[in-house]
Amino acid sequence: MLLNDDVKIEVRETFKDLKDKIKLIAFTQKIECHYCEENRKLAQVISELSDRIQLEIYDFQQDKEMAEKYGIDKIPALVVMGEDRDDHIRFFGMPGGYEFTSLIEAVRTVSGSQSALSEETRKYLDGLDTDIHLQVFVTPTCPYCPPAVILAHQMAQYSDHVRADMVESIEFPHLANRYNIQGVPRTVINETEYLEGAAPEAALIEKIKKALE
Questions:
Q1: Half-sphere exposure of 37 (CA within 13 A, CB side)
Q2: 103/9 Cα distance (integer angstroms)
Q3: Containing H/E element for 16?
Q4: Which pLDDT score, from 0 to 100, does residue 115 have?
Q5: At what angle do helices 201-211 and 145-158 cross, to 10 degrees?
Q6: Could you give the CA distance from residue 127 to residue 15 in angstroms, rounded to a whole number?
Q7: What is the C-alpha separation between 75 and 105, in angstroms, rounded?
Q8: CB of 171 within 8 A of CB of 35?
Q9: pTM (2 decimals)?
Q10: Which of 13, 55, 83, 186 is deepest in the core (most CB within 10 A)?
Q11: pLDDT tens, residue by residue, 20-32
């Protein structure tokens, strides 16, 4: 069982304040993908806990056009987006363990009407004219990882110039090696800058500025 009854009740209660309808999109395939089935089932369970969540499921190989449309280059993957707007929020790897919180918060962020970001952060993001890609590397057993993921996703939801991915390090060891992930959370910014730990907004903004220099 992915979620017990108590967790389902708690999540359903949390989802009562969802405002806008959202889409939860799962990319999967039948073979050669560890956790794909569990990821799909998790998406199905989550979608059943609120009538404001629309679920779409695509096969990574057979539905290549959809994978390209949403920038999905590895699986398992989840997209959390508005009904008519891509908020550039991605999960690569199953959001299990502590990262389940990040998934629930992503749903709430996309469905909300007010940014949780500070005025200073919003002002900086409003002035962006260059795209930013944030990759937050995590593990399911890391209690400090969700705040880093949630912050990145909030920035992506707020600004069309920001895309934010949760990347589960254990499921994608080649990426963990590529970016020299020794500890999590670690946020990779545009391939060039790195931020260690669950840092505050101001620290991430400073790293973004440095990446754009």
A1: 5
A2: 16
A3: none
A4: 72
A5: 60
A6: 32
A7: 21
A8: yes
A9: 0.96
A10: 186
A11: 999 999 999 988 8
